[in-house]
Every structure is written in structure tokens, then in C-alpha cells.
């Protein structure tokens, strides 16, 4: 596949930068000034919208995500509680809102090339144009209806920009005929554009994982993520969760990840099932939690085979992994293990404590601490096992967090890799001789995964550890085995696939001296 990331020109004739032009934090363009022709008259007032309720909802979500840098799913969930929409409109509104976030950079590239002065676009006008641009380019909808509704949507936020909207959207209808402006089979830029990805990100995956994995990753990232539920054996009676799904007439099936069966993990066929009273009661009562199957698999890897005297979870967030870890401990030892957690945000520590109380989890202490100072806080060899759930780019979770792809930058990934190398070494100092150290991410970049491991093993503290193979050792020894096969023998690495769990990575070490 040709590397066309430099000097590539789109139909508008302007050079394309990796990922298109990226919105600034205010949703506009760096250096963009006011433009009267775009409807910035001070006396202009938003009109009553003639756009459909679903499109208005998608516009409101996009505006909130842009202004607050919020997570799209969180905004949708909150606004659906107040929206007066039919079930059909809710489904379409959700599809639009997620799709616009997912494809924002690609949509902006197209909108910019259809505008005379894109820097002058009001952020609210751009929000509205994105909704209709997504319909025109990525959905099999009537172009005429999309243009008409797009004009009304823009009119609702800036009446004087209706003419501009009509011109821009009609140009996009014409552009749709040749989109993605190249052959995705031999053009990296066209492949990235077709799947609404920044070009730099597609190139990174191509360089790290190869062409076949890139295509599978791009396609799967744009699909709806499956729903996985973890049964909480600390609260639920045996068979109670499965029975509730049966009463709710929701199909729930057991799960395997990378050939490993995951006990008490259920894949739910109908996403709406969690809103049904029987299932909602389980979640509200702490008898079950929503958690990706790969995350559940990693929690099983992180718990030692013998009861640890002291276990540390680094990067505990809102406490989901804590619940999973203690469930594994209860299964293996018949009791929960001594568990301490670390997170650098006080509000997350409070959430951990509340969730622990709800779910019956033993949580000895939730430390609010910068993970780069673990050794200073706990000293050397303080824990029998340490689990680092590392901060990462989250590229393995793009289906659940579509905003990531246009917010993250190559520099962010480099910074996270450096940070995690420090955190892993700090955690290593706190691990006892004979103790277990686990490093995990929810991303697929080599910089944050394999290269962090390599850097750790070359460090002075890393030299005191040996890696624990987590994968298929037989595959690595088979005739003709590649370096990739060897890597699979060492690490847990779930690939992102349609209708499968998120992409996660884990490496494990034992301290030998």
C-alpha cells in the first residue's frame, strides 16, 4: 500500500494533512475570524427548527461534545433521558450523533473544501453541517432530504447561514460520487478517508501490524461494540444473572477470548436488554456490571495463583477492574484478597469506594496518588502482586469512545509511552521477590505496548524480572513461526474484530531477584 500522506491533494486542490484539519479546542479554526456572510450579524436570532427531532438531537450532542470535550456516549445517555423522541428517532439520533463524532475530521476536511472561507465558519454552523455531511457521505440516505434538513438545521442556529449551508451541502452531494477520492486497496489516504480515520493513525497501525490487520481494525472500529456483562459472584446467587436475562427475553451467551473461557462473562445480544427491569435491577444492585470481555480476561491474568498478602492496582479509575479482580480472587481462594488501589484523581477514588460498597468488594484503601511516585509512597518490595492498568491512547476501544480518534495525536502516544515506562518501573520496585507484576493497556500501538516492555526489561529494575509467557507457546515453536507468532506467545493481545471484544494488551513478569 502506497504511503501517500505527504503532498496528497483532495478534489478541492488543497494539500491534505494527516487526518485532515483538526478542530481547535473551541471547535473552530486557529486564526479564524468573524464572517458576516456566514451569518454573524449581531441581530441574527436562531429560528424555530424545521429539522427532524433526531437531527436536532444529534446537533445538540455534537455541540456538547465539542464545547465540553465530553465522551459522546455519556452525553447521549444524559440527553436521551430528557428527550421526547420515539424509539425509532432515538435509534436514528444515536446513530447520527456517534457517526458525526466518529467521522468529524473527515467531515471537516470535506466541509472545508466546499467552503470559500472555512476559517470563518461559526462553530455552531460547523456542528450542524457535520450532521448532514455525515448523512450524505456515510449513510445511504436521500441526498435531497439530507440537504433540505441540513439547511434547516443550520438555519436553526444561524438563519443567515442557510444559503451557505445549501451551497456547501450540494457540493458534498457531488463529492459523494468520487469519495474517498482514490482506491482504498492501494491508497492509504483513501482507505483512511473511507473509514473516517486520521491518516497518521492508519499509517501507524499499518507500520505496526500490517495491511490485513489495518483493514480489519478500521472496519471493526466503525461498528457497534458488543455488550458484555460480568456477573458479580460477591452479590449474585448462582444462576441469578442468567435467569434475569431469560426473564427479560434477552439472549446471553458465554464468552471466550483468545481461546480462553471467561467464567461469569455474558455477551448480550440485545443492547436494549440492560434497560429492562429484570436486568436493570441486577446492575443497580451491584449483582452485575458492564465490562468488556477483554478487560475481564486481563483481570483473570493479573490475580496470582496463590493468595497474595497485599495486592496493588495502579490506575483503578472508577473501580471496574477492582470488582473483576476480587471476583477472580473469590473464585480461586474462597475469599477476597487484600486490595489497595491508586488513582491520581480524588473524585475517582470516591467513586471506587461507593462502587465497592455496592458490589461487596473488599477495598482496603483507595490512594490518591501520582503513579510516578509509587516507590516514594510504598517503598521497595511492598506488594506480592502489582497490576498496572496503564493510561493509554485507548485505540482498542474506539467503538465505545469514537471521539478519541480525532483528539489523540502522535505526540500524545509518545508521551503516554514515556509515562508508562516510568510507571512500570515504579511498580516494579514495589513488587516483592517472587511477586507478580502485570502491565495492561487497551490500545494496539507498539509504542505503548511491546516497546514499553522492551524498555522496562532493559532497565536496572527490569533486569530483576523475567517475563511470564501469556500466549500460545506452541504457535511460536511451530515450523515457519514468525516474530509476530513469538510475540503472541509472550503477551496477551486481543485483536479488534467485528462482533468481538475490544483490543487489549497485557504483559506479565515475575521478580526473580
UniProtKB/TrEMBL annotation:
<comment type="similarity">
    <text>Belongs to the class I-like SAM-binding methyltransferase superfamily. RsmB/NOP family.</text>
</comment>
<keyword id="KW-0808">Transferase</keyword>
<dbReference type="Pfam" id="PF01029">
    <property type="entry name" value="NusB"/>
</dbReference>
<dbReference type="Pfam" id="PF01189">
    <property type="entry name" value="Methyltr_RsmB-F"/>
</dbReference>
<protein>
    <submittedName>
        <fullName>Antitermination protein NusB</fullName>
    </submittedName>
</protein>
<keyword id="KW-0949">S-adenosyl-L-methionine</keyword>
<feature type="domain" description="SAM-dependent MTase RsmB/NOP-type">
    <location>
        <begin position="217"/>
        <end position="498"/>
    </location>
</feature>
<feature type="region of interest" description="Disordered">
    <location>
        <begin position="1"/>
        <end position="52"/>
    </location>
</feature>
<dbReference type="GO" id="GO:0003723">
    <property type="term" value="F:RNA binding"/>
</dbReference>
<dbReference type="GO" id="GO:0008173">
    <property type="term" value="F:RNA methyltransferase activity"/>
</dbReference>
<dbReference type="InterPro" id="IPR001678">
    <property type="entry name" value="MeTrfase_RsmB-F_NOP2_dom"/>
</dbReference>
<feature type="binding site">
    <location>
        <position position="389"/>
    </location>
    <ligand>
        <name>S-adenosyl-L-methionine</name>
    </ligand>
</feature>
<feature type="active site" description="Nucleophile">
    <location>
        <position position="442"/>
    </location>
</feature>
<feature type="compositionally biased region" description="Low complexity">
    <location>
        <begin position="8"/>
        <end position="20"/>
    </location>
</feature>
<dbReference type="InterPro" id="IPR035926">
    <property type="entry name" value="NusB-like_sf"/>
</dbReference>
<dbReference type="InterPro" id="IPR006027">
    <property type="entry name" value="NusB_RsmB_TIM44"/>
</dbReference>
<dbReference type="GO" id="GO:0006355">
    <property type="term" value="P:regulation of DNA-templated transcription"/>
</dbReference>
<feature type="binding site">
    <location>
        <position position="370"/>
    </location>
    <ligand>
        <name>S-adenosyl-L-methionine</name>
    </ligand>
</feature>
<dbReference type="InterPro" id="IPR023267">
    <property type="entry name" value="RCMT"/>
</dbReference>
<dbReference type="InterPro" id="IPR049560">
    <property type="entry name" value="MeTrfase_RsmB-F_NOP2_cat"/>
</dbReference>
<dbReference type="InterPro" id="IPR029063">
    <property type="entry name" value="SAM-dependent_MTases_sf"/>
</dbReference>
<feature type="binding site">
    <location>
        <position position="343"/>
    </location>
    <ligand>
        <name>S-adenosyl-L-methionine</name>
    </ligand>
</feature>
<keyword id="KW-0694">RNA-binding</keyword>
<dbReference type="GO" id="GO:0001510">
    <property type="term" value="P:RNA methylation"/>
</dbReference>
<keyword id="KW-0489">Methyltransferase</keyword>
Amino acid at each position: 500500500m502506497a504511503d501517500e500522506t505527504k503532498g496528497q491533494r483532495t478534489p478541492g486542490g488543497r494539500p491534505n494533512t494527516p487526518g485532515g484539519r483538526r478542530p481547535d479546542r473551541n471547535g473552530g479554526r486557529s486564526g479564524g475570524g468573524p464572517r458576516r456572510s456566514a451569518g454573524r450579524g449581531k441581530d441574527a436570532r436562531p429560528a424555530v427548527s424545521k429539522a427532524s427531532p433526531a437531527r436536532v438531537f444529534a446537533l445538540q450532542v455534537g455541540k456538547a461534545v465539542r464545547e465540553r470535550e465530553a465522551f459522546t456516549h455519556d452525553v447521549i445517555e444524559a440527553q436521551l433521558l430528557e428527550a421526547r423522541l420515539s424509539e425509532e428517532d432515538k435509534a436514528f439520533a444515536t446513530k447520527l450523533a456517534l457517526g458525526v463524532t466518529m467521522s468529524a475530521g473527515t467531515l471537516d476536511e470535506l466541509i472545508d473544501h466546499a467552503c470559500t472561507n472555512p476559517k470563518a465558519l461559526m462553530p455552531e454552523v460547523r456542528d450542524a453541517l457535520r450532521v448532514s455531511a455525515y448523512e450524505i457521505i456515510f449513510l445511504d440516505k436521500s441526498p435531497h432530504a439530507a440537504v433540505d434538513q441540513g439547511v434547516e438545521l443550520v438555519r436553526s442556529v444561524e438563519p443567515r447561514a442557510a444559503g451557505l449551508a445549501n451551497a456547501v451541502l450540494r457540493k458534498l452531494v457531488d463529492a459523494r460520487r468520487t469519495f474517498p477520492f482514490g482506491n482504498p486497496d492501494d491508497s492509504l489516504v483513501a482507505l483512511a478517508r473511507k473509514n473516517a480515520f486520521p491518516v497518521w493513525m492508519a499509517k501507524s497501525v499499518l507500520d505496526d501490524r500490517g495491511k490485513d490487520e489495518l483493514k480489519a481494525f478500521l472496519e471493526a472500529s466503525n461498528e457497534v461494540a458488543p455488550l458484555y456483562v460480568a456477573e458479580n459472584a460477591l452479590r449474585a446467587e448462582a444462576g441469578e444473572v442468567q435467569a434475569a436475562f431469560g426473564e427479560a427475553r434477552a439472549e446471553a451467551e458465554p464468552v471466550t477470548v483468545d481461546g480462553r473461557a471467561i467464567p461469569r462473562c455474558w455477551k448480550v445480544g440485545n443492547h436494549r436488554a440492560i434497560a429492562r427491569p429484570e436486568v436493570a435491577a441486577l446492575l443497580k444492585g451491584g449483582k452485575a456490571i458492564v465490562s468488556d470481555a477483554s478487560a475481564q480476561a486481563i483481570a483473570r491474568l493479573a490475580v496470582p495463583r496463590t493468595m497474595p498478602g497485599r495486592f496493588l492496582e495502579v490506575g483503578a479509575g472508577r473501580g471496574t477492574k477492582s470488582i473483576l479482580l476480587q471476583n477472580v480472587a473469590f473464585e480461586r481462594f474462597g475469599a477476597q484478597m487484600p486490595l489497595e488501589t491508586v488513582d491520581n484523581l480524588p473524585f475517582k477514588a470516591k467513586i471506587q469506594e461507593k462502587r465497592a460498597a455496592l458490589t461487596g468488594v473488599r477495598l482496603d484503601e483507595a490512594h490518591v496518588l501520582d503513579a510516578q511516585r509509587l516507590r516514594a509512597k510504598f517503598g521497595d518490595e511492598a506488594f506480592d502482586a502489582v497490576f498496572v492498568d496503564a493510561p493509554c491512547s485507548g485505540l482498542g476501544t474506539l467503538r465505545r469512545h469514537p471521539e478519541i480518534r480525532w483528539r489523540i495525536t502522535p505526540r500524545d502516544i509518545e508521551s503516554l509511552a514515556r509515562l508508562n515506562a516510568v510507571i512500570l518501573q515504579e511498580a516494579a520496585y514495589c513488587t516483592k521477590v517472587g511477586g507478580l507484576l502485570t502491565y495492561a493497556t487497551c490500545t494496539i500501538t507498539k509504542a505503548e505496548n511491546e516497546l514499553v516492555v522492551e524498555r522496562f526489561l532493559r532497565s536496572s529494575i527490569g533486569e530483576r524480572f523475567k517475563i511470564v509467557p501469556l500466549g500460545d507457546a506452541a504457535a511460536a515453536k511451530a515450523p515457519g513461526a514468525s516474530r509476530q507468532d513469538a510475540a503472541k506467545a509472550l503477551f496477551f493481545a486481543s485483536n479488534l474484530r467485528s462482533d468481538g471484544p475490544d483490543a487489549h494488551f497485557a504483559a506479565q513478569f515475575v521478580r526473580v531477584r
